[in-house]
Design brief:
The structure holds 2 protein chains of 2 kinds.
Chain A (H helix, E strand, L loop, with lengths): L3 E6 L3 H12 L4 E5 L15 E2 L9 H11 L6 H21 L13 E2 L9 E2 L5 H16 L2 E4 L1 E9 L2 E9 L4 E12 L20 H8 L4 E2 L4 E8 L9 H4 L3 E3 L7 H4 L9 H13 L8 E4 L5 H7 L1 H11 L8 E10 L2 E3 L21 E3 L4 E2 L11 H22 L10 H13 L8 H15 L6 H18 L13 H25 L17 H4 L1 E8 L2 E8 L13
Parallel strand pairs in A: 1-2, 1-9, 2-6, 9-16, 15-17
Antiparallel strand pairs in A: 3-5, 4-5, 7-8, 8-9, 10-15, 10-18, 11-14, 12-13, 13-14, 18-19
Chain B lengths: L1 E10 L6 E10 L6 H12 L18 E4 L2 E4 L5 H4 L5 E5 L6 E3 L2 E2 L2 H8 L20 H11 L6 H4 L2 H5 L5 H12 L7 H8 L13 H5 L6 H14 L6 H16 L4 H9 L4 H16 L16 H11 L8
Parallel strand pairs in B: 1-5
Antiparallel strand pairs in B: 1-2, 3-4, 3-5, 6-7
Chain lengths: ~575, ~325
């Protein structure tokens, strides 16, 4: 007997939505997360969640088109259509769960403007939308009684005969390893921002699910597509929401010019993120920056609006930069924020090719949703407020699909010595002699390298340098010791394992960047600045090989939209 | 600058077992927070130091701990705001909760109390086809309790919880407020009834610690006071807490000042002899020091009491609660 029909690894929005959907579909479902669910990084989504719910002019088709265009035509259009069609229903569902969305004068759901969108279709809770939804989702988990393994860290996906069987995981409070078997597993572990330094991402965003899947034979898709958010604080890289610009804030350079008028005459500050980040980087490179930053100016919005709709970023700018944005502009710059790439799934969130055509490889019974997955709905560039939408739409689909899949799986027992192998591997690392190397120092080298060479502007030489550095770090990682030998809450051991995950994922980011011989979305090569639709309406794929990733390509799914020149 | 951190260490593991302070010194930039500094210690000096942290931006709620005797989010606390150059900062785990290792506490107690308030929307009847219609003011009012990140700082420093483990505590009560004040919730009366029980809203001593330490402006005690009003407006006035409030108001409305003796008698109930007898030694001590006015009929009206009475009249029926 398996412990569970469905096991969800990761308990942010995608994970919890999946667990609730599986529970409603009648599955014995459990969640597992290395942090308590409400500590998940979905918290950090500030601005809102998109849906063409109603409105005089807006339509689902417009939302689809904006998303396709935002993706620089790399998103799979069938997946985008599905997401945008499901969006209105999911917004209502969240509202029914108890999310305290902003209202209009009639007491109905109200919206705000967001980047890359033709209409104001972003539903929001001040500037804490992610937190407000995450906590409500956890309320629903408590209501459902779904089992939750909190502060359990997954170390292995158990795969036998190309079929997922569960995970090996460490209970962090005791350091004990456990085997949890399941008929299907959903990965919802978020992104890999910590492979970059600085990043807006929380310290927990270390690509765990991507690495676990990659090691288990799944395919990683479009890993070179890394989003730099236009407005991050200079000091610690913390995010200031796009909603600031949605509410009307300006971006200005050292001369006081609203420079976006030059780069995106129509949408200006609300052009898509890749466009705005590149514009900022150009301003800074050409000497019109202020200490390596440009300025985000909210002063004309007035104190009342700032303190109600943008209260949290007002607090953040004050706490971390000492700036009162009611009175002064805030220095900001592009910073690593999100990865569009991830574990390749189909529109039902399956990580394997169900059609049997063998277009890509991946173990059966494995599902993925949220930032860790790549369906792909964001293609080369994600639109703001489409990420929360992706988590709930595909989280729900994953929960239902994994439940359905589990019904077809009979009793099994795990034959391999997965847990004792992991125990032995941990012991071997623990027994390594101290050689002066520290996990944190290697992580920093990785992060700085990636942020230098795989940022807003890229080129062949830089990406080659980064790849070589990642390979060197992997070699050094092979003898990296763990200083602390204890069992209880040994974060030294956790960070060591996470670094191993990030190094493997980072290698696929570099390899994807080198493979894609064009500029598209967030992947802008100064040595190849044009988009090449003839050769590159393709995803890049990475499969783990003996010595680094084996790279290939996969056609983009088109339904109704032919690529056009992208102007904002 | 040089950061000097005095950190409470705790471990029950074999040779490493400890329960004592350890001092660390690290060089850090001026703008570093307490969390940045602890991370530097963990990365460069002592990887055995255990603490929870994640977002570094005061939204995930992981890093609540005591800094110089007061619960704070380490990521939101600049080092220079708690210590001048060269001064030692004392860092300990949160209070009122079992320590697991160093700065990591067991959150079972915290979540157990949250679970006890049925922390999920209980709508009345079937869901509408579209969204619930609700005024934006009601949603904006809920923004305050919804801003709670469940960090535990208020529970750590709650003085009632320190002596009364049965108390639901500030975080759970603020969470409960989030539903009581939600126009979509259909269980307001039951919720208030439960909060009227022992361990509920009346166990708060109004010490204000939770308001002071909350890093997100949730001000749990103020939410608890609104809940008290809600409880009394529901006609649930037969508890020592509710009677205490009524007696307080009555004596001030009548005489302009507090009748301490009747406050005890009314709160505990006239016939609750054991409780009243237990109060006698205290009453005698207070009387001797001249700190208690004469009771009952002997409690004289202050000059200007009528004016106070008129203020009471004018405010009657108006309340601070926003639901």
């Amino acid at each position: 007997m398996a412990d569970h029909d469905v096991l969800v690894v990761g308990a942010g929005l995608a994970g919890m939505r999946a667990a609730i959907a599986a529970h409603r579909a009648g599955a014995n479902v459990a969640m597992m997360s290395k942090v308590h669910p409400v500590r998940s990084h979905s918290n950090a989504a500030q601005g809102g969640i998109n849906a063409a719910l109603r409105g005089t002019d807006d339509s689902v088709d417009s939302h689809i088109y904006d998303t396709v265009k935002g993706s620089d035509y790399l998103g799979d259009q069938d997946a985008i259509e599905l997401m945008c069609n499901e969006a209105p229903g999911e917004i209502i569902n969240l509202e029914h769960m108890g999310v305290i969305f902003n209202r209009d004068e009639e007491g109905r759901l109200g919206t705000r403007a967001f980047g890359g969108a033709s209409y104001a279709r972003t539903f929001f809770v001040a500037d804490i939308t992610g937190q407000a939804i995450l906590h409500v989702m956890y309320e629903q988990i408590l209501k459902s009684g779904v089992r939750s393994y909190e502060e359990w860290f997954a170390t292995d996906l158990i795969i036998e005969d190309n079929q997922v069987r569960g995970v090996v995981a460490m209970e962090m409070l005791t350091g004990k390893l456990h085997t949890i078997t399941a008929k299907s597993v959903i990965l919802a572990t978020g992104g890999v921002g910590r492979a970059f330094e600085p990043s807006t991402n929380a310290l927990i965003c270390t690509g765990d699910g991507m690495a676990l899947a990659y090691r288990a034979g799944a395919t990683l898709l479009d890993m070179e597509m890394v989003q730099y958010h236009p407005t991050t604080l200079a000091g610690n890289g913390v995010l200031l929401t796009e909603a600031a610009r949605g509410e009307g804030a300006y971006l200005i350079n050292s001369k006081g010019e609203r420079f976006m008028e030059k780069y995106a005459p129509k949408m200006k500050e609300l052009a898509s993120r890749d466009v705005v980040s590149r514009s900022e980087a150009t301003e800074i490179e050409e000497g019109r920056g202020v200490n390596g930053c440009v300025l985000l100016d909210l002063r004309h919005l007035g104190e009342k609006l700032i303190l109600t709709k943008l209260k949290y970023i007002h607090e953040v700018a004050y706490d971390f930069a000492g700036v009162d944005m009611v009175k002064e502009p805030v220095p900001i710059r592009p910073g690593q924020h999100y990865i569009m790439g991830g574990i390749k799934t189909d529109v039902a969130t399956r990580c394997w090719d169900e059609t049997g055509a063998g277009r890509w490889t991946g173990p059966k019974g494995l599902f993925a949703a949220g930032e860790t997955a790549c369906v792909s709905v964001h293609g080369g560039n994600r639109l703001g407020a489409n990420s929360l939408l992706e988590t709930v739409v595909f989280g729900k689909i994953a929960g239902e699909a994994a439940t359905e899949y589990a019904k077809g799986i009979g009793d099994f027992s795990v034959s391999g010595a997965w847990q004792s192998d992991r125990e032995a591997a941990i012991k071997a690392v623990m027994d390594r002699p101290a050689n002066g190397e520290r996990t944190a120092a290697l992580r920093l080298e990785l992060g700085q390298t990636m942020n230098q060479h795989l940022a807003v502007f890229r080129n062949e030489e830089g990406m080659q340098t980064a790849l070589a550095k990642v390979k060197e770090l992997r070699a050094r990682y092979a003898s990296l010791p763990i200083v602390h030998k204890g069992s209880v809450y040994n974060t030294d051991l956790i960070f060591h394992t996470e670094l191993g995950y990030m190094l493997e994922v980072a290698e696929t980011i570099c390899a994807g960047g080198l493979l894609r011989k064009e500029s598209r979305g967030a992947h802008f090569r100064k040595d190849m600045p044009e988009r090449d639709d003839e050769n590159w309406m393709k995803h890049t794929t990475a499969v783990r090989g003996e010595d680094g990733p084996t790279m290939d390509t996969l056609e983009v799914v088109k339904t109704r939209w032919e690529p056009q020149k992208r102007v904002y | 600058m040089r950061a000097k951190l005095r950190v409470k260490r705790f471990s029950t593991e074999g040779e490493a077992s400890t329960n004592a302070f350890q001092e660390y010194e690290v060089d850090v930039p001026e703008h570093f927070t307490v969390l940045d500094s602890l991370i530097r210690v963990r990365e460069d000096v002592d990887p055995s130091l255990a603490l929870r942290c994640s977002c570094r931006a005061s939204i995930c709620g992981s890093c609540a701990m005591r800094v110089n005797d007061r619960a704070r989010l380490a990521c939101k606390t600049r080092l220079t705001s708690v210590a001048k150059e060269g001064e030692i900062v004392t860092i300990e785990p949160m209070g009122n909760q079992r320590v697991v290792k160093d700065l990591v506490v067991d959150l079972q107690l915290f979540w157990g109390k949250v679970r006890a308030v049925e922390p999920f929307l209980l709508p009345d009847g079937p869901e509408p086809e579209e969204e619930y219609i609700a005024p934006n003011e009601a949603m904006l009012n809920l923004l305050t309790p919804m801003g709670c990140i469940m960090c535990g700082a208020c529970v750590s420093d709650c003085t009632s919880l320190e002596v009364d483990k049965n108390f639901l505590g500030p975080a759970a009560l603020a969470k409960s407020y989030r539903f009581v004040a939600d126009p979509r919730d259909g269980a307001q009366a039951t919720r208030l009834q439960n909060l009227n029980e022992s361990g509920g809203v009346w166990d708060c001593t109004r010490c204000n610690m939770c308001v002071e330490v909350c890093p997100k402006g949730v001000a749990p005690m103020e939410r608890i006071m609104e809940l008290r009003e809600g409880v009394m407006d529901q006609g649930m006035t037969n508890t020592p807490g509710a009677r205490h409030v009524a007696s307080f108001a009555n004596s001030v409305a009548r005489a302009g000042w507090l009748d301490e003796t009747m406050l005890a008698v009314d709160s505990w109930g006239k016939f609750n002899l054991p409780k009243l007898i237990a109060e006698i030694p205290l009453a005698i001590r207070v009387l001797r020091r001249g700190k208690m006015p004469l009771p009952g009929p002997l409690h004289h009206k202050l000059k200007g009491a009528d004016a106070i009475g008129r203020i009471f009249k004018r405010l009657e029926g108006k309340h601070a609660r926003k639901f």
